[in-house]
Design brief:
This is Rieske (2Fe-2S) protein. One of its GO terms (molecular function) is 2 iron, 2 sulfur cluster binding. The protein has a single domain, classed as Rieske Iron-sulfur Protein (3-layer Sandwich), CATH 2.102.10.10. Helix content is about 0%, strand content about 35%. The chain is built from no helices and 11 strands. The chain has strands at about 10, 15-20, 30-35, 40-50, 50-55, 80-85, 90, 100, 110, 115, 120-125. Strands 1-3-4-5-9 form a 5-stranded mixed sheet, with no helix packed on it. It has a 3-stranded antiparallel sheet with strand order 2-11-10, with no helix packed on it. Strand 3 and strand 4 form a beta hairpin. It is globular and about 35 Å long. The structure holds FE2/S2 (inorganic) cluster. FE2/S2 (inorganic) cluster binds near residues 62, 63, 86 and 102.
Length: about 130
């Protein structure tokens, strides 16, 4: 059995540093866990593709499962969309809209991030997940 190590949990608040941009090569993604003030844990992920860096909550709008079948694998095999590992729904990378599959018409919940002056991916807002 293989165990995968998740990065350490980070606080869900503006300015929290997720990782250096260089840790997410073009065409890949990376998962993180955030904790809020009440100690609740939420999984998010960041994808880097075609110069675009986006982040979403790691929850499929269809059945609420994590999107990655194995840690840090969020893109479909063609690299053009985010794909849910459970039933195969596909989401546009740029805005998280579901474009195929059982949750067509819904979308991923976005997480606000930016690249800071040191080249790190940081949260710009508290995520306010319910
Ligand atoms: S849980 Fe994601 S497509 Fe069903």
């Amino acid at each position: 059995m293989t165990f995968f190590a998740r990065p350490p949990r980070r606080e869900d608040r503006p300015g929290t540093r997720l990782c250096p941009l260089a840790e997410i090569p073009e065409g890949t993604g990376k998962g993180f866990e955030l904790t809020d003030r009440d100690g609740r844990v939420r999984a998010i992920f960041v994808v880097r593709r075609n110069g675009c860096v986006v982040a979403y909550r790691n929850v499929c709008p269809h059945a609420g499962t994590p999107l990655d079948f194995k840690p840090d694998t969020f893109l479909a095999s063609d690299g053009e969309t985010i794909q849910c590992a459970t039933h195969g729904a596909r989401f546009r990378i740029e805005d998280g809209a579901c474009i195929a599959g059982p949750c067509n018409g819904k979308g991923l919940t976005g997480v606000a991030v930016e690249i800071d002056a040191n080249g790190a991916i940081v949260l710009t807002h508290r995520s306010n997940f319910n």
